[in-house]
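[step 3/7] fold_predict: job queued, chain A
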Amino acid sequence: MTTYRAPGWLPGGHAQTIYPLLIRPDPLPYHRDRWETPDGDFIDLDWNVVPPASNGADTRPLLVLFHGLEGSSVSHYAITLMRAATAIGWSGVVVNFRGCSGESNRLPRAYHSGDSDEIDWILRRLRALCPTRPCYAVGVSLGGNALLKWLGERQAGAGDCLRAAAAISAPLDLTACGHHLARGFNRIYTQYFLRTLKRNATEKLRRYPGLFDERRMSAANSLYEFDDVVTAPLHGFAGADDYWRKASSKPWLTGIRLPTLVLNAQNDPFLPAQALPLARQAAASVRLEFPRQGGHVGFVTGSLPGRLDWLPQRLLHFFQHEV
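[step 4/7] structure written:
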């Protein structure tokens, strides 16, 4: 069996995290499929093949990807993973969360780190659409947290939809993650996210005047302040503390019954290493893998200018040979 390591050529988690953001992989010729949600909104799914039109006898594996905060199907990790899946003959689909496909969603709500009900609806619809296919799911960062929470909540019932799953750089403890991002150099990531979060929130206010306090939103200088005024109330939480506590996936790891890979680098600037779970804090079906290098969804390897192929190969090896 191949032993997977993530020896980055870039020193430290910051370089590992920032470098992939500067890389623009060639876009894939996605096939877009729009789904109407039960509450009158929509999501867009981008497939690496023509979307299945009806229940068929196709047995090709299906790989589902849930992206991270303000990510989409054009995020570097989405493109590299879908390209790797295509190369081995797998079908793949990137689920763009509400408002992340290039078009604002219709409702005041959008998506959040603990949106396991949305994960459930999507995976069950995919299962009905592709009943003969072995299905695997990957969640990255925010998407990984939501996926892990769903796995822990549904326990053995998750097997109705999936054969196995993986979470990459998930912010398992949102409180530890949020406060860590408010310190020192890590604040550069906070400002990176706040730029698009505030832009999208401003668009929401134009469509729904008075939805939240615009002054507080504009003045927010941390994810805590933004979540407290926007994310939490729009999604039924009392505030940022309530949201971060209830949406964190770490307490749900003991309930997971499917083979699941949890991959977090120890030098991830989003989540301090001391917040990573111990073996006793996860079920036996969960493989905890915490390489020393990798940053946040980085895992850059090789000599300059570096490669981003380690992560998709690690994921596919897990699904093909370790499940």
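[step 5/7] annotate
Residues 174-247 form one domain.
The chain has two domains: 12-172+249-321, 174-247.
exit 0
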